[in-house]
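Tokens for chain A. Residues wanted.
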């Protein structure tokens, strides 16, 4: 688990440093243009692995024949998606009124051919929870792609620096995965044996597709009814806020889905493990969101530069959504681990309709209106999501709510402390003020946790759960007679 955290936080540090550089070399319009191109590719990404990587992780009796069949399916899908993304540039250019999108999309489409070749290699590493290899892979690919992007930006290539970053990340990531996993595909076969995995993956894909589509709808609506500059401000505010939170949730999610899957025959342990993990996640994430929200203006000025300060209000509004999403996204653990992927797909479709409708309503008040609509939607759908997700599982609807109680109390205390510091030190330069705000928040956060035994225990239980989860899913090394020997 420590390697997983090390990997995602190393990648985050690299991305953050690159963002600080690129934000000063490129304009909001250029970032907005890239966001326009990615509105479709982010949705298309949900078809890239067809949920088959998760199917491989969850399968109890995986055979090499199945892995081989899934490899060729992913490879074929990669080619189809690459062509689709390349051709989509013509439609996006007409939709947004940006001719440059044609060639940007053509270039981005090329990356899908290579990404399709790496899905099963990555899934095999995830199956064996080889976090060290995954961490090295992600960090290496991220570092090389960021270096390429910075060089391109200094060379004056504009939006193409962002395109190069995207493509090189895929190329380097695929290469490292093939070097890390000794398995190689043979001729296409075994498709009939893979039907059950395809069925599982199709429901996961539908759920992820609609979730992603609804999340990208705000970018589409802003880009269509406003301009690239407004979209650039909105997307940078969103990514700057959510990127560090993903680094917290991603390694925990990587362990929790297989861990909960293994506990289906032990309902009480399933329920307690879920609740302890959610509580620990909220303890680590919620106070952090509060600190970022209060110091939004300083965060924007320090990490992006003065030209991006108009994004600060959006950053603060989206923090409300992120505060809730730390827990609400764990509903997905329940759907996938319990095998209720059909319910997962249905909920994602319904939730996407509500979310998109709120964006259409909110855009008339600008990017702040879209952010407010998104935040309200996340709060309103919180309880209904768990009503659906907990059905047929040992977890009760009240469990995630009770798991949030102490983290919310601590976050409120941190909020008051950081706001007090900001008021007292308002005349300091941005970097100094941000340092004071973060230091205050962290000290108060740590102090309250240390003085509150129950909160201390909940964080400790999170670490215990993820450590045990890794041991329960690890497989012994063996020969190459089956996937577990890869």
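Reply:
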């Amino acid at each position: 688990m420590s390697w997983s955290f090390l990997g995602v936080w190393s990648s985050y540090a690299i991305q953050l440093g690159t963002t600080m550089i690129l934000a000063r070399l490129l304009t909001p319009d250029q970032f907005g243009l890239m966001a326009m191109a990615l509105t479709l590719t982010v949705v298309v990404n949900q078809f890239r692995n067809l949920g088959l990587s998760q199917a491989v992780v969850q399968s109890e009796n995986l055979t090499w024949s199945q892995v081989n069949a899934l490899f060729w399916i992913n490879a074929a899908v990669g080619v189809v998606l690459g062509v689709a993304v390349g051709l989509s540039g013509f439609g996006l250019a007409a939709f947004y009124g940006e001719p440059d999108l044609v060639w940007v999309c053509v270039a981005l489409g090329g990356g899908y051919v290579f990404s399709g070749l790496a899905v099963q290699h990555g899934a095999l590493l995830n199956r064996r929870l080889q976090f060290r290899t995954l961490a090295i892979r992600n960090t290496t690919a991220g570092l090389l792609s960021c270096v390429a992007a910075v060089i391109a930006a200094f060379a004056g290539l504009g939006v193409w620096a962002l395109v190069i970053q995207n493509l090189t990340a895929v190329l380097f990531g695929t290469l490292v995965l093939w070097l890390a996993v000794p398995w190689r595909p043979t001729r296409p076969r075994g498709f009939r044996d893979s039907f059950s995995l395809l069925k599982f993956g199709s429901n996961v894909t539908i759920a992820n597709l609609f979730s992603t589509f609804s999340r990208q709808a705000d970018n589409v609506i802003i880009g269509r009814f406003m301009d690239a500059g407004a979209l650039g401000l909105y997307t940078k505010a969103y990514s700057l806020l959510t990127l560090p939170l993903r680094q917290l949730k991603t390694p925990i999610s990587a362990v929790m889905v297989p861990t909960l899957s293994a506990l289906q025959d032990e309902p009480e342990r399933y329920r307690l493990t879920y609740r302890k993990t959610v509580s620990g996640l909220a303890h680590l994430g919620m106070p952090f969101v509060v600190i970022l929200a209060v110091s939004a203006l300083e965060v924007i000025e320090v990490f992006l530069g003065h030209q991006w300060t108009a994004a600060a209000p959006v950053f603060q509004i989206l923090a409300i959504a992120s505060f809730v999403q730390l827990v609400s996204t764990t509903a997905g653990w329940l759907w996938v681990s319990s095998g209720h992927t059909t319910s997962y797909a249905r909920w994602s479709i319904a939730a996407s309709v509500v979310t998109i409708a709120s964006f259409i309503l909110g855009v008339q008040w600008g990017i702040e209106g879209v952010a407010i609509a998104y935040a309200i939607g996340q709060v309103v759908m919180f309880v209904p999501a768990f009503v659906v997700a907990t059905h047929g599982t040992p977890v009760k609807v009240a469990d995630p709510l009770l798991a949030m109680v102490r983290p919310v109390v601590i976050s409120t205390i941190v909020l008051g402390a950081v706001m007090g510091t900001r008021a007292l030190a308002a005349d300091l330069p941005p970097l100094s003020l941000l340092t004071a705000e973060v230091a205050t928040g962290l000290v108060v956060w740590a102090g309250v946790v240390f003085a509150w035994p129950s909160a201390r225990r909940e964080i400790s239980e999170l670490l215990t759960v993820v450590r045990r989860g890794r041991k329960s899913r690890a497989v012994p090394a063996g020969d190459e007679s089956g996937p577990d020997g890869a």
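The first helix runs from residue 2 to 25. The radius of gyration is 22 Å.
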